[in-house]
From TrEMBL:
UniProt keywords, alphabetically: DNA-binding, Pyridoxal phosphate, Transcription, Transcription regulation
Protein name according to UniProt: GntR family transcriptional regulator
Domain HTH gntR-type: 11-79
Domain of life: Bacteria
Keyword DNA-binding: yes
One Pfam family recorded for the sequence: GntR
Native species: Plantactinospora endophytica
Family: In the C-terminal section; belongs to the class-I pyridoxal-phosphate-dependent aminotransferase family.
SUPFAM superfamilies the UniProt entry points to: PLP-dependent transferases (SSF53383), Winged helix' DNA-binding domain (SSF46785)
CDD domains: AAT_like, WHTH_GntR
């Protein structure tokens, strides 16, 4: 057992040890129920610190791969992970019990277009005559291509951004592959990479997107893919600038391994983002898969996202869907087409963009007046630094406010605790909410009982 584990490890960091053991678990070489060697014996065999092995074991335990049972030892768990072990499940601990739930990351329903007129206009149109028809309505594909940030070789439609990520990752990433991921990142994406047995490698962000030097260093790890959010990054709100997209494309082009990396862009905010569309596909069209979601802009229940990029990858996604759902509802595609070409809907979306920007600006300014630097440059979320995450969440919960913890977003610790607040759901009471957020963040600010009562009446 000890020899098997040692022979599988070529990276003796905590992350490398965890990744190697995870691969052994997933391939069945370490079957469920196997008792693992002690931390000290593994450390001695590998010539590393027991602390490094302990950290690896903690990572595996948090991922649901192993479990320590006191003096009985540490054992491999069955592959069917419990929902509670997922990062995604930790985002909303108890929203149902709190009246002001700002933890969800969903758009304000009242700022979405009304679907009823579109449904009436498409009527009872029969849109499917064969199960082997193309997965995208022809007219919808024309409209999508007109709006794409670069000319994609092929384009298809799937059931939302997460479905797109799942299918693209499934086509491009294999067990043990390294994948570059923004830090912080969207928790379901990290869960997805863990599920396929990939090794996420963090790259850092600044106000313009991924830092070029961090990308260059990450490419030295021989990754197969780079996953990024080009606009309204969740949770930070950062949107990549065109200049940064050009820099990152140049880094990929100059690196000996850069030409083999598949770039997957998750443009989840779509048409509610204030920043214009941007993509590395303008420079590297044969490497970039761009995903455009319509959930936050046109409606989560449309369950639609478009995927465009290299023909080999997009065709692989479309072909695999033939063995599952086949295609995304053409009725919903017809609704989306109507919305995309309807001038009234365009006005609604423009109003939503302005309103989300107004809410971001008001809360950002109110927090700045209270000593909290929490910029929210785009989208519907705000990434708020706090002295202690647990204290902040409990403090806000005491006033009926739910926010998402920051740790599920972190691939590597950021050095400062954070919480994510969906500022797009805050309609009023910005000054009062800022008082509570400042107190929770560790920047005390006077707030009277009258102000708190006003807050409860005015914010959602």
């Amino acid at each position: 057992m000890l020899q098997l584990i040692a022979s599988a490890i070529d990276d003796r960091t905590a992350r490398g040890v965890a990744a190697a053991v995870s691969r052994l678990v997933r391939t069945g070489e370490l079957p469920a129920g196997t008792r693992l060697p002690t931390v000290r014996s593994v450390a001695r065999e590998l010539g590393i610190s027991p602390t490094t092995v302990s950290e690896a074991w903690r990572s595996l335990a948090s991922a649901g791969a192993i479990q320590t049972r006191g003096r009985s030892g540490t054992f491999v768990l069955p592959p069917n992970r419990l929902r509670q072990s997922l990062r995604y499940a930790r985002l909303t601990a108890s929203p149902a019990t709190l009246p002001h739930d700002f933890s969800t990351g969903v758009p304000d329903h009242d700022l979405l277009p009304d679907l009823a007129p579109a449904l009436r206009r498409i009527g009872d149109t029969r849109l499917t005559t064969s199960y082997l028809e193309e997965p995208v309505l022809p007219r919808l594909e024309v409209v999508l291509r007109e709006r794409w940030p670069f000319p994609p070789q092929q384009l298809t439609v799937v059931d939302g951004a997460l479905d797109a990520l799942d299918r693209v990752v499934g086509a491009a990433v294999r067990l043990g592959d390294r994948v570059l991921v923004e830090n912080p990142a969207f928790p379901p994406l990290l869960d997805l990479l863990d599920t396929v047995g990939a090794v996420p490698v963090p790259v850092t962000l600044d106000g313009s997107g991924i830092e070029p030097a961090s990308l260059a260093a990450g490419l030295d790890r021989a990754p197969v893919a780079l996953l990024l959010q080009p606009r309204a990054h969740n949770p930070t709100g950062i949107s990549m600038t065109p200049e940064r997209a050009a820099e990152l494309s140049a880094v990929l082009g100059a690196h000996p391994l850069g030409g083999t990396v598949v770039v997957v862009e998750d443009d989840h905010a779509g048409e509610i983002a204030s920043a214009p569309p941007v993509s590395l596909g303008g420079w590297l069209p044969e490497q970039v898969v761009h995903i455009r979601s319509f959930s936050k802009s046109h409606g989560p229940d449309l369950r639609l996202a478009a995927v465009g990029g290299p023909a080999n990858l997009v065709a692989s996604v479309a072909d695999r869907r033939l063995l599952g759902p086949g295609w995304s509802s053409r009725v919903l595609q017809a609704v989306l087409l109507d919305l995309l070409t309807d001038p009234a809907t365009a006005r609604v979306l423009a109003g939503a963009r302005r309103e989300y920007a107004r809410r971001r600006d008001l809360l950002t300014a109110a927090l700045a007046q209270r000593g909290v630097d929490a910029p929210a440059p785009d989208g519907i979320n705000m990434w708020i630094p706090v002295r202690d995450q647990q204290h902040a969440m409990l403090s806000l919960a005491a006033h009926g406010i739910a926010v998402a913890p920051g740790t599920p977003f972190e691939l590597d610790p950021l050095g400062t605790d954070h919480v994510r607040l969906t500022v797009g759901l805050v309609r009023d009471g910005f000054a009062d909410l800022a008082d509570l957020l400042a107190d929770a963040a560790g920047e005390p600010h006077r707030s009277s009982g009258r102000r708190l009562r006003t807050l409860r009446r005015t914010i959602r």
